[in-house]
């Protein structure tokens, strides 16, 4: 009983001191809180400099995301797909004779699959279409000449291409290529010629690459289930190499990351002995028979900060991607092992007015510990 009384007296002194200290801090800092207002609990540091550093880091990550998105848009813009009728390369102003309205050449095609080539056009009222021709590099593989009424369509053999028997429809606007081979990678060009003279010509072109894709997705290794704040995480993301190489991207809690002072991303190439190199969608292509399998690895070194844990969980994802034809990822999660009793040092309250109250002091934390001990003694 004496111990209980002593604890109560000590608790009263601590609470009184804590109240006076909090009131003084609010007067000095001009912080206003509302009793009974509904607030939101968030994790953060009780050091303003640390908070500022975290905000600056988030701003830098957001700026990097915007730059990466711009780069991706620029890359996608060069995929030879014209959704607005303006062409992707060899862009020209309005043509008074014949105009390319829609031009589609896929940027990447998986080996052994099918692809469509589209060159939709508009012939002006006073003009007549003389011919539509498709080229792979400098080799012509298709032509449509309306004036040849008995045989307007003609197909020419080129390596890696096999056109569907229903070639181009009635007016040759869409071609369907089946069983694309590795040799099909090249620049594809659509050429339109108006009846002449002067036989005015307009054309569009774009690059297409045949891809050999891996059968399995990326694997993240080096995983340890739990980490503390200020520890370093070292992870490897490995995937069988593809042609062309896949892009490996790391995200932390859904945010794309790049190399900074707290994030280090290192590309690594590996080669190890295997029974052979196998890929999907490869019915007719020739693969290396050296018995070696090549893999691509990206290493992420991350210094764990408090803001990385959302609800006590940190999520890291590695995504392997190639254009719009391949995207697979591997996600791992980590839990925060920081002591829960001392986490109140990093806990603060957002008042109903949107202003941050003073983080709990050491005195307040001691009061919480005394309340716990008192509750434990009373239960006994």
Percent in strands: 35-45%
Query: What is the first-to-last residue Cα distance?
Result: 12 Å
Q: SS-based structural class?
A: alpha+beta
Query: Fraction of residues in helices?
Result: 10-25%
Helical stretch count? 3
Notes on the protein architecture:
- This protein is α+β, with helices and mostly antiparallel strands and 380 residues long.
- The protein has three domains: 1-25 and 358-374; 49-76 and 214-336, Sandwich (Immunoglobulin-like), CATH 2.60.40; 98-211, Immunoglobulins (Immunoglobulin-like).
- The chain is built from three helices and 20 strands.
- It has helices at residues 2-29, 48-77, 362-379; strands spanning 40-43, 98-104, 108-110, 115-123, 129-136, 139-144, 153-155, 174-177, 186-194, 201-211, 219-221, 226-227, 232-240, 247-252, 255-256, 263-273, 292-303, 313-322, 326-336, 347-350.
- The strands form five sheets. Strands 3-10-9-5-6-7 form a six-stranded mixed β-sheet, with no helix packed on it. A five-stranded mixed β-sheet has the order 12-19-18-14-15. A four-stranded antiparallel β-sheet has the order 11-13-17-16, with no helix packed on it.
- A hairpin with a 3-residue loop joins strand 18 and strand 19.
- Helix 1 (2-29) packs antiparallel against helix 3 (362-379).
- The longest helix is centred in the N-terminal third of the chain and has 30 residues, at 48-77.
- It is elongated.
- Residues 28-52, 72-92, 271-292 and 339-360 have low confidence and may be disordered.
